[in-house]
Design goal:
It comes from Nocardioides marinus. This protein is mainly alpha-helical. The protein contains 19 helices and 5 strands. The strands form 2 sheets. It has a 3-stranded antiparallel sheet with strand order 3-4-5. Bound molecules: coenzyme A (COA). Coenzyme A binds next to loops.
């Protein structure tokens, strides 16, 4: 089989052989196709990069039709079951699972970088009383670049690792403090006796007790949620990290851009919309009328459907299981009953079956977060903490990829050309 594509340009009658490698052609090869020698080369128009690969990556594999998600080749189900978030973070960053010594060193390093400079605290205290925690997180991660000016030396491997450890370590501190600020509560310093996720819960919820130790089942459930969110290949925020990182800026600035992307409702906000929807439906009896409205095109069943997954999102299955563990501690969220019934009906209904609409990661995650008593504004902050190792693994890959260039998409120019400027006095006369 010849691994190439023959293209005939009907404008000129000329044929071109375009090589195919790894299931793709190079857009630059299409650029050689021209209507005339001095005409611009053929471009590919692809808003939203729907069918354009921007990089080669070995971090995360997704098969949306089969519902497969793997980090560095390991199925998400196995990692969620048997691993910890920090082990998964190591796997994403280093490409392989750690030995015992490597794991202990990694956990130690992350644990001892959880504190932030006192001026970061002052900076965060300066936000308006009702500042959105995601806006605070984005700004404070960006601000870290000014505390570690050496972070800009991205060609230095040791320096890169240092910033990666710092960022994974400090993210829960910044996330928890963003939450406390909105509540008018004092910031809680990290407790390095606790695990990564237990310490995060302590910084969120500790009051006057000398030590805050959350129920182990809750710690495990949140740790699992972090694992499920740790990477998802070239999504909007990862693309933002890579795009900004391609200018060779420091990783704090690149990750701050990723947080900005995640802040948007089309990316990180669907689980909040699911809760609003469940609350509006109110009880099981109202489900048929609601489903009819969805099928009539009046609205969408939030938490269903995915750009990539045309099968059950593997993360949704794991979260559904985690719901049981969390509700055992917190009591059942009454909205769960509606969610389960909605899922049952939708999975049997031809409208959803035909369109391959299955529950996605957001269908159940909001219910769990609510059981932890997180306000909806915190949902994306939790997502960001989980996604940080993925952003950094992708950034690391970018910094070492010789094929990468500064991101600079083409445009198809549709505007005017060569107009004559008329000075203001004449235009306004
Ligand atoms: C995630 C999402 C944006 C993916 O969209 P997409 O890949 O661009 O799919 P499309 O919008 O082209 O939808 C394809 C068809 O399924 C329908 N559809 C998609 N998601 C739907 C949903 N949640 N409820 C009802 N119908 C839906 C569309 O109306 C369309 O039907 P049509 O072919 O009759 O016009 C979309 O499924 C959605 O809006 N889901 C709800 C929001 C959500 O849960 N987002 C979180 C994603 S992790």
């Amino acid at each position: 089989m010849t691994e190439s594509l023959t293209v005939r340009d009907n404008r000129t009658g000329q044929e071109y052989d375009v090589p195919i490698a790894d299931g793709a052609i190079k857009a630059a090869d299409l650029g050689k196709i021209k209507a005339a020698d001095d005409a611009p080369g053929l471009a590919v128009y692809d808003p939203g990069f729907v069918n354009t690969a921007s990089c080669r990556s070995s971090v995360t594999y997704i098969d949306g039709d089969k519902g497969i998600l793997e980090y560095r080749g390991y199925p998400i189900e196995q990692l969620a079951e048997g691993s910890t978030f920090l082990e998964v973070a190591y796997l994403l960053i280093h490409g392989s699972l750690p030995s015992k010594v490597e794991y202990e060193q990694w956990v130690h390093d992350i644990t001892y970088h959880t504190f932030v400079h006192e001026n970061v605290k002052g900076f965060m205290e300066g936000f308006r009383y009702d500042a959105h925690p995601m806006g605070m997180l984005m700004a404070s991660v960006g601000a870290l670049s000014t505390f570690y000016p050496e972070a800009g030396m991205i060609q230095d491997a040791e320096n890169r690792q240092m910033q990666i450890v710092r960022m994974i370590a400090k993210m829960p501190t910044l996330g928890a403090w963003s939450f406390r600020h909105a509540q008018g509560k004092p910031f809680v310093y990290p407790d390095n006796d606790l695990s990564y996720t237990a310490n995060f819960l302590s910084m969120l919820f500790k009051m006057s007790e000398s030590k805050y130790e959350a129920d182990e089942r809750l710690v495990k459930a949140l740790d699992t949620l972090f694992i499920l969110h740790a990477d998802h290949e070239q999504n909007c925020s990862t693309n933002a990290v890579r795009s900004v990182g391609s200018s060779q800026v420091d990783p704090y600035s690149a990750v701050a851009a990723g947080i900005g992307a995640l802040y948007g409702p089309l990316h990180g906000g669907a689980n909040e919309a699911v809760l609003r929807m469940l609350r509006r439906i109110g009880s099981k009896e109202n489900i048929p009328a609601f489903i009819k409205g969805v099928k009539d095109g009046n609205e969408r069943l939030m938490g269903f459907g995915h750009r990539v997954y045309k099968n059950y999102d593997p993360r949704a299955k794991i979260i559904k299981k985690a719901c049981d563990d969390v509700f055992e501690v917190t009591g059942v969220n009454p909205l769960l009953e509606i969610a389960l019934e909605l899922e049952k009906i939708a999975l049997e209904d031809e409208y959803f079956v035909k369109r391959k609409l299955y529950p996605n990661v957001d269908f159940y995650s909001g219910l769990i977060y609510e059981a932890f008593q997180f306000p909806p504004e915190m949902f994306t902050v939790l997502f960001a903490i989980g996604r940080t190792p993925g952003w950094l693994a992708q950034w690391l890959e970018l910094t070492q990829d010789k094929e990468q260039k500064i991101a600079r998409p083409k445009q198809l120019y549709m505007g005017d050309r060569g107009l004559d400027f008329t000075p203001r006095e004449q235009r306004w006369a």
